[in-house]
Task: structure prediction
Amino acid sequence: MSNKCNCNQTIPHVGCDVTNCKYNTNDCHCTAENISVHNSSAVTKGETYCSTFCPRGTC
Result:
């Protein structure tokens, strides 16, 4: 899976509130080529997580 940043393009209809993710734009949209959300046993929204997340300046 490639998470390369397409900083000029966002994934349509995918918002992101994680301001310290390198794929998050200033207007809360995702610029990763694709996203992957994990936790197959999740039963609530809070039990899921975006494995595409990469802290700014570390990836």
User: Anything to note?
Assistant: The chain has one domain: 1-59. The two ends are 15 Å apart (CA to CA). Strands lie at 37-38, 49-50.
